[in-house]
TrEMBL record:
Reactions mediated catalytically: D-maltose = alpha,alpha-trehalose
Enzyme Commission number(s) of this protein: 5.4.99.16
Membrane-spanning residues: none
Organism taxonomic ancestry: Bacteria, Pseudomonadati, Myxococcota, Myxococcia, Myxococcales
Domain Glycosyl hydrolase family 13 catalytic: 17-416
UniProt-recorded name of the protein: maltose alpha-D-glucosyltransferase
Keyword Repeat recorded: no
Keyword tRNA-binding recorded: no
Signal peptide stretch: none
Keywords annotated in UniProt: Calcium, Isomerase, Metal-binding
Stated family: Belongs to the glycosyl hydrolase 13 family. TreS subfamily.
Lineage: superkingdom: Bacteria
Alphabetical list of Gene3D superfamilies matching this protein: Glycosidases, Golgi alpha-mannosidase II, Oligo-1,6-glucosidase, Domain 2
Length: 548
């Protein structure tokens, strides 16, 4: 990494999310590991990503794929050692790739020594108060249940403690108690441990739920924001330049406070825009996107949205109305096995029936909307999923490197793999793999790589303003990104057929729109409607050159 780097580096980043276990198994035991990931860094560098986000890799009983942490300072021995992790960070930095890791701040595993100690400690003691206990399951009635398919209550009775404990997620994930100042102290020490190893930031998991209060829905409380401000102040004081990314699955107005006045998180996921992008292309109507972007408040200059199409969880439908949820399920989850909790557990390519043009359109929106794009591993080659597997395991299968046994992911006997690779005729590794796509200049992989390169040339995408242009044809969306001397016009056709569109570009009269994928100059802008006819699911990115 080039130090001192731009403190706003995350605004220009291209983030790639992966599991250590799923990427590459270097020692043939069937589980991906740090060494395997390290060997694949040249691949990531070639793809062009600039930040690697690793899902939890800490010791864990793995009842929530590592989001149930039993030791925050170590690493799961199946993935390697702390030294292996340190080497990975060094090597990633040498290739100018930042490393983002998880801080599961809301809860631990029930196997964590803090919980084992707490349940045996006397009532009212500091040890006991690491978690949220009650003599009755009647408190905090206003809080919703998040994992609706498995949990019936946010309280579970603990025989050892003789009390109920609070959990917003699985019952084996007791919530930490931030009313106890020792909890935050302990977390800051954990942060220091990893920050000293050189990591570039944390994704703060499930942060709306840190503090509970009766008579509220126990989400986004002022006390929760007070905790986050302390976390940020600590980072600012001791590790300036490192980044905090808020995972707050909330409406834009409720996410906005997670940026504070630039004194909480540097970044936050924009959850509601994602399902609306899918809704818009299914309805062939720009309204869902324009509406949510108009409802998205301004954020402080140093802050940034994190944008994604898919991730390791289900495509969450928490931030849509009930009607919209029904529509999304009808449109994207025909089979009941495709839904999980309040969402759809499918990967990008199968969601759009492997439609190449739709995948490209979706990515064009991801790469041109205001924020930092996040790619989920395997989506760059159009990997598939398997809805017959439990929970979210169907979207967490081994990376498909080649058509060799086990998709080139591992030399272990197939029965020893942490998960079988996808083998169906359309998305299986014989048909979809990195090796074949790298050898094919027309492949999805080359297209994604090209888009990443293009985006990296134009800081306006990560830093600029966004303005929607009025368009009479609702099947087309047009917006302008502007930053310093750069103005980019994006036009996307959300329908499957060609569409005409007339744009009022008179503000840029005299400028020449240069189509950015082919560097083709289009007719100059005059004081008259500018007519375009994008193909079905087609899009244009134009750099507006010259003019006044
Ligand atoms: O650690 C528990 C969970 O935390 C994250 O959850 C988020 O994902 C949920 C969907 O699976 C979502 O509904 C919720 O609002 C989020 O906080 C994490 O990403 C999950 O993998 C994890 O199980
Ligand atoms: Ca291994």
């Amino acid at each position: 990494m080039d130090y001192p780097r731009d403190p706003l580096w995350y605004k220009d980043a291209i983030i790639y999310e992966t599991h250590v276990k799923a990427f590459r198994d270097s020692n043939g035991d069937g589980v991906g590991d740090f060494q395997g990931l390290l060997e694949k860094l040249p691949y990531l560098e070639d793809l062009g990503i600039t930040c690697l986000w690793l899902l939890p890799f800490f010791p864990s009983p793995l009842r929530d794929d590592g989001y149930d942490i039993a030791d925050y300072l170590g690493v799961n021995p199946s993935f390697g050692t702390v030294d292996d992790f340190r080497r990975l960070v060094e090597e990633a930095h040498r290739r100018e790739i930042a490393v983002l890791i998880e801080l599961v701040v809301n809860h631990t595993s029930d196997q964590h020594p803090w919980f084992q100690r707490a349940r045996r400690a006397p009532k009212g003691s500091v040890e006991r108060d690491f978690y949220v206990w009650s003599d009755t399951p009647e408190r905090f009635k206003g809080a919703r249940i998040i994992f609706t398919d498995t949990e019936k209550s946010n309280w579970t009775w603990d025989e050892v403690a003789g009390a109920w404990y609070w959990h917003r997620f699985f019952h084996h994930q007791p919530d930490l108690n931030f009313d106890n100042p020792r909890v935050l102290e302990a977390l800051l020490q954990i942060m220091r441990h990893w920050l000293d190893m050189g990591i570039d930031g944390f994704r703060l998991d499930a942060i709306p739920y840190l503090v509970e209060r009766d008579g509220t829905n126990c989400e986004n409380l002022p006390e929760t924001h007070a905790v986050i401000k302390q976390i940020r102040a600590y980072v600012e004081q001791h590790y300036p330049g490192r980044m905090l990314l808020a995972e707050a699955n909330q409406w834009p107005a409720d996410v906005r406070p997670y940026f504070g006045d630039g004194d909480e998180c540097h970044m936050a996921f924009h959850f509601p825009v994602m399902p609306r992008i899918f809704m818009a292309i299914r309805r062939e109507d720009s309204e869902p996107i324009v509406d949510i972007m108009r409802r998205t408040p301004e954020i402080p200059e140093t802050c940034q949205w994190a944008l994604f199409l898919r991730n390791h969880d289900e495509l969450t439908l928490e931030m849509v109305t009930e009607l919209e949820r029904d529509y999304m399920v009808l449109a994207y989850a025909r089979d009941p096995g495709m839904t999980l909790n309040v969402g759809i557990r499918r990967r990008l390519a199968p969601l759009v029936d492997n439609g190449r043009r739709r995948i490209q359109l979706l990515n064009s929106l991801l790469f041109s909307f205001p924020g930092t794009p996040i790619l989920y591993y395997g989506d760059e080659i159009g990997m598939g999923d398997d809805i017959r597997r439990p929970d979210r395991d169907g979207v967490r299968t081994p990376m498909q490197w080649s058509n060799e046994p086990n998709a080139g992911f591992s030399t272990a006997e197939t029965s020893k793999l942490y998960s079988l690779p996808i083998t169906d005729p359309i998305y299986g590794y014989a048909a979809v793999n990195v090796e074949a796509q790298r050898a094919d200049p027309s492949s999805m992989w080359h297209w994604v790589r090209n888009m990443i390169r293009l985006r990296k040339h134009f800081q306006v995408f990560g830093r600029g303003s966004m303005e929607f242009l009025p368009v009479a044809n609702p099947k087309v969306i047009a917006y302008v990104r502007h930053w310093e001397d750069d103005t980019i016009l994006c036009v996307a056709n959300l329908s499957r057929h060609p569409q005409p569109v007339e744009l009022d570009l008179s503000r840029w009269e005299g400028a020449t729109p240069v189509e950015m994928l082919g560097f083709t100059p289009f007719p100059s802008i005059r004081n008259e409607p500018y007519v375009l006819t994008p193909n079905g699911y087609g899009f244009f990115w134009f750099e507006l050159r010259g003019g006044h």
